[in-house]
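re: that chain from earlier
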Amino acid sequence: MNLSLNRPISFATMAKPIGSACNLNCTYCYYLEKQKLYTNGANLQMSDEVLENFIRQYIEAQQVPVVSFVWQGGEPTLRGIDFFKQVVKLQRKYAVTKHIENAFQTNGTNLNDEWCSFFKDHNFLVGISIDGPEKIHNKYRPYKTGKASFTDVMQGIDTLHKHRVDFNTLSVVNRESSLHPLMIYNFLKDIGSGFIQFLPVVEREAAIAAEQGLKLVHQAFKNGAKITEWSVIPEDYGSFLTTIFDEWVRRDVGKIFVQLFDVTLANWANVPPALCVFGETCGNAVVMEHNGDVYSCDHFVYPEYHLGNILSTPLAQIAGSNRQVTFGNSKRDTLPQYCIHCDYRFACNGECPKHRFMLTPDGEPGLSYLCNAYKEFFAHVHPYMQIMADELMAQRPPANVMEWACNN
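^ sequence. v structure.
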């Protein structure tokens, strides 16, 4: 079988070694209920067979010198540190001449000296999920017992600092946290996060559970669904972003890296964005469950987006399949005319397909729920982004924008 016909040069795979299993019970989590796809959560641990097949196939599939692994959950520490010691051994076995990188997203509650020493020894980049100061974080991120998680997360961060492990932060922007932008931004800086990611939570809940009992549905679901009470309000999200940007552009350019701001600058500088939600197409980042099942995206783990299993079909073939190519191109091909003629199409490209369940003012389907938020943000940052893009073109530091921003 010729796998080179649609084989991508490189692609990302988010691996779920413990599936959707987690020690927390975050109210807004879209992944916890995915265990219903697997006999109600029975045995969500990735087997040795799946692990070795994945590492071998993934490294072989990448036609680039650097191969980046991403380990997520659920909560991946629940799979145990011995599993990840095996990960490193297998990566060395199959790397040949390729350089291997590892990113590990965790809620931070299980991090101790052993974990952090391992991360340091093997150069893992750790992502910590933390929503902000204690009251904001604990609002939606309790343990399954109901106990608050903030204190344990902060202890985990302290241990990362102790072992000098590089980490970044991922903060979910929900209906409550969106009202406190500077409090959250300053808190994240104070705990030592030099790279900050904000993830807006937008979920719809079906009135009647969809296939296999899933309540949180994708954008194409037509049988009646409403926005959850924790989902961010677009106008609040727009204000959240612009408020933080105004602080960042006057004080922190070149010192603190906010993913959304970096990606926006890339679009202004006519450089392909590193974030799929703002790309013209998507589909270059699949997700693999604990048993080797591959889905189109971690936001599309639904039966209708199941692409295959690596134990029966090579991962490269799955990632380059016609179904996945069609999935990725549909982001561009189904863009409403309202978006096509928008001044900020180049920066947004319709945003994430998961959020495109609204109607345009003309009644056309496919508008992002967050359209107004991003329009507000892009209009607000336009002059600053243009200055930074011009500085880049002139081979000068974009941080020069801070002086202009402080005087205007």
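Residues 1-5 have pLDDT under 50 and may be disordered.
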